[in-house]
User: Fold these one by one.
Assistant:
Number 1:
Amino acid sequence: MISPRIDKLLEHVDSDYASVVVAARRARQINSYYHNLGEGTFDEFTPPMVETRSKNYLTIALEEVAQGKLKYHYR
């Protein structure tokens, strides 16, 4: 079961596809942030913007989308 629910995600994005693309890109950024923590390069990557118990980067990204923390635009 996905958490947060897809209907919460669709309140902040246009389509299922957009939610997948936005969340995948943000999950990669969160992954890079945690991998660079030990190196002291914090300014390149934004830390997670939500408080969560999850350690899964994709779940964190989906929670950010569901709470409206991410803005996106099509090229």
Number 2:
Amino acid sequence: MAKLPRFSLSYNNKNRKWELKREGSGEVVRRFKTKAAAIKGGVLERAVKKLGSVRIRKRDGKIQEERTYPRSMDPRGRG
């Protein structure tokens, strides 16, 4: 199985925005005003171009959840 691109959604205190970054390079893919705006209605899925794993973090930096796009590529869902 091919390795999926990894992303992280975290809060940036400096600019007061939520940032979706590509892990490894630190490249900011997209910025959001609120966390809710980032995770509603397929916005994250479109931002990672429907292929990747996104770690959604709390404001304190701890991982809240992880989402895989497409869902069928989630290794935890395979038996």
Number 3:
Amino acid sequence: MPAYLAWTAEPPEDLDGPWTEARPVAPGLLLIDSTEHLSAVYHALKWSLPDDAALVVVPLHETPKLRGLAPGTTTWLRERTVPQQRT
């Protein structure tokens, strides 16, 4: 299932949307589990924010390197993305 990383300048009013899970992992940072395409995820989040709130949504194809996020974040990502190749 595709995973998305979203950053919002303000918290969404609600996390109802076209996804199985929207997981807050740090202030303003969400991981989203959805079979929908990027545009559908982006617009659902956009509509849950105030009009002037900044928003970035990107698909995750690989497990990113990360640190200091909510417990279980790395496991959640590894279950939904391809591990990075060692170089």
